[in-house]
Amino acid sequence: MLFRLRKTATMPIARTTLLFLYILILLMALGEAFLFFTGSKTLLTETIVAVGEPFKDEETINIFGDYNNLERPQLVCKYFNGRKVVFRQFPYSSKNSGGIDACPSFLKPRQ
Questions:
Q1: CA-CA-CA-CA torsion sign (72, 78, 79, 84)
Q2: Are 35 and 45 members of one domain?
Q3: Number of domains comprising the chain
Q4: In which domain, by residue range, is 68 found?
Q5: Would 94 be classed as within a structural domain?
Q6: pTM score of the predicted model
Q7: Domain co-membership, 53 together with 4
Q8: What is the pLDDT of residues 3-37, one digit of tens each?
Q9: To 5 degrees, how large is the angle CA 51–CA 57–CA 58?
Q10: DSSP conformational letter for 92
């Protein structure tokens, strides 16, 4: 009898955990579907690259070259759009004059 009570007492916890995991997976799938179908992008990382400084990882080197050879610092933003990772490069300005100080956390389609 004690074994049967212990088994039934743990069942609601297991069901609650499974329900929580199913809801979490569903929400993640809906979020990815939203990004995929709308073309919107959400920010993953941002990196400030000074003039003449090398880019930090292999992906950005393949896209932008070995060094930042532009006349001013650049802000390299890494976004996820539901199916792949994309990069955007913006002029950097710590005071938001002639550039931006942080990557936009969410980009609309074609932006």
A1: positive
A2: no
A3: 2
A4: 41-101
A5: yes
A6: 0.71
A7: no
A8: 555 555 556 778 888 999 999 999 999 988 888 88
A9: 115
A10: B
